[in-house]
């Protein structure tokens, strides 16, 4: 799986190039099974260009990666306009998601206890609202309480809100990074 992910993250970059008028991107072999992914694109200095993804496996993994890479780089509302020359200034990160695992809990404390910092991504849902954080987002939170509060806000709810109908799923990711290529000395 590791080698396939390394090929897929390079394919994500190639898909961005193709969308900007570069050569056609060729998907790696063996990625026809359904899969869910997120692609995060950052500039060399760490600024976010965009992050887009799928929570559930509904398309062949290579197709999902390509779609999410182009969306993260070009469609995400936070994205700057790009040219083909910009592609080598970007770090591309691919997260291949495990299937969503429903979490059973009696209250908010139980929901927090079901999440392992750094390991689990979480999806929170309530009456048509849904939001997620990838496991890499744990670096921005001090604990599960802070992460869950921010996840509620992302879903359009107050951080201190709780409802007995709240649903939560967790997942893990296999992460692959294709750093911006080294610059040639002039």
What can you tell me about this protein's structure?
With 186 residues, the chain is α+β, with helices and mostly antiparallel strands. The chain is built from four helices and nine strands. Helix 1 crosses helix 2. The longest helix has 18 residues, at 2-19.
Give me the strand/helix succession: HEEEHEEHEEHEE
Give the biggest beta sheet. Answer: 5 strands, antiparallel
Overall 3D form: globular
Percent of residues in beta strands: 25-35%
Structural category is alpha+beta
**First-to-last CA distance:** 38 Å
E-strand count: 9
Residue runs with pLDDT of under 50 for 5 or more positions: none
Radius of gyration: 17 Å
Highlighted features:
single chain, 186 residues, alpha+beta, five-stranded antiparallel sheet, four-stranded antiparallel sheet, 4 helices, 9 strands, 27% strand, globular
What would a concise description of this structure say?
Helix content is 27%, strand content 27%.
List the SSEs and their pairings.
Layout: H1 2-19, E1 34-43, E2 48-53, E3 59-60, H2 61-75, E4 90-97, E5 101-102, H3 108-113, E6 121-126, E7 129-133, H4 144-154, E8 167-171, E9 173-178
Antiparallel strand pairs: 1-2, 1-3, 1-4, 4-9, 5-8, 6-7, 6-8
Helix pairs in contact: 1-2
